[in-house]
Design goal:
336 residues, alpha+beta, Alpha-Beta Plaits, DNA polymerase, domain 1, extended
């Protein structure tokens, strides 16, 4: 039987969204199950990894080393239970790996303050009036009495104080990276020429999305340019799609929105940074990208091709001051 081993990684200092995401991605890259406990707090289930990755201490040391090279301070706590491993990590110094041996959980928690447990403030205050200020004293109480007086949440905290934690690490799905890149021998210095060159890149992404039944929600393009810094262009794709032509159109608009020149482009990397399962959706005529006339026309044409003429209509109000404006509206084809 494989015993449970949990390593909790606790980041130190201010944890931005970018830093949180970067650490989560790094952990998911080499560990089978990583869960998010809180901002900057990650629980890693190490069961079954010893043969491939080594002991839990070795894995934890590797995590600390990887994060230190990325200039991220963190401590790692190891225990058989997620709660104890987290408390261990919180109390460890940055760069330190600490472990609580199986069976020693109650002893480890006994001398800690009651605030360590997930108890409501009013319950802690009432316990303090009874002279109970530490985890050990709380664990010594009868659990039935705790349940009767304080309720289920306090009884669950009492179980933790006694070293009982049956919760499992719920692993997050690692971010799916779908990307393609190209580099050209001769620099591209025109928007239309660049858009034409991007077609093969987005067709490759489109094929991978379609194969996995996914739709792109956000695109990011990084253009490597001659003698100037890399240009980063990001675009929200509404509605999400796996269609290569729609992806190309969305990215082209992002490039056209730039007032200044793009420069001479030597290479490009495009990534679908957010994806979701592809499914039938309401077409976003009024979404952010739909504000662009060209896309609105493209969507209207698509609807007309699927539903037939006389279905996609546009209202023209002849008298805006009319008591019932809808009676003064004239309907005509949105796309002639």
């Amino acid at each position: 039987m494989t015993h449970r081993v949990i390593a909790v990684v606790h980041l130190r200092g201010e944890v931005s969204d970018a830093r949180h995401a970067k650490v989560l991605e790094a952990l998911c890259a080499f560990l089978p199950r990583v869960g998010v406990e809180d901002r900057g707090v990650f629980a890693c289930d190490l069961r079954g990894t010893e043969r491939l990755l080594g002991s839990a201490e070795r894995v934890a040391a590797r995590i600390v080393g990887v994060l230190e090279r990325a200039r991220v301070a963190a401590a790692v706590g190891i225990a058989a239970q997620p709660f104890v491993a987290r408390v261990c990590a919180e109390r460890a110094a940055a760069g330190e790996v600490a472990r609580v041996a199986a069976g020693e959980e109650r002893v480890f928690l006994a001398d800690l303050p009651l605030a360590t447990l997930p108890l409501e403030e009013e319950h802690r205050e009432e316990l303090a009036l009874l002279g109970i200020r530490g985890v050990g004293a709380f664990a010594a109480l009868d659990r039935g009495a705790v349940l009767d007086r304080f309720g289920r949440a306090a009884a669950a905290a009492h179980a933790l104080a006694c070293g009982e934690d049956a919760s499992e690490v719920r692993g997050v799905v690692p971010r799916r990276r779908i990307a393609a890149r190209r580099r050209w021998d001769a620099a591209i210095d025109g928007r239309e020429q660049l858009v034409f060159a991007l077609k093969s890149v987005l067709d490759e992404i489109s094929a991978e999305l379609a194969r996995d039944g996914l739709a792109a929600l956000r695109l990011e393009a990084r253009l490597e340019r001659e003698d100037v810094p890399v240009l980063r262009v990001e675009r929200l794709v509404l509605p999400p799609t796996a269609n290569g032509a729609a992806l190309l159109r969305s990215l082209r608009w992002a490039l056209e929105e730039r007032v200044e020149g793009i420069g001479r482009v030597l290479g490009v990397r495009v990534e679908a940074t957010e994806v979701e399962p592809a499914r039938a959706r309401q077409i976003g005529l009024f979404a952010a990208d739909g504000a662009n006339d060209e896309e609105a026309i493209a969507l209207a044409r698509y609807l007309r091709s699927r539903l037939g003429p006389g279905v996609v209509l546009r209202a023209e109000v002849r008298d805006e001051e009319a008591r019932l404006a809808e009676r003064e509206a004239r309907w005509e084809e949105a796309v002639s």
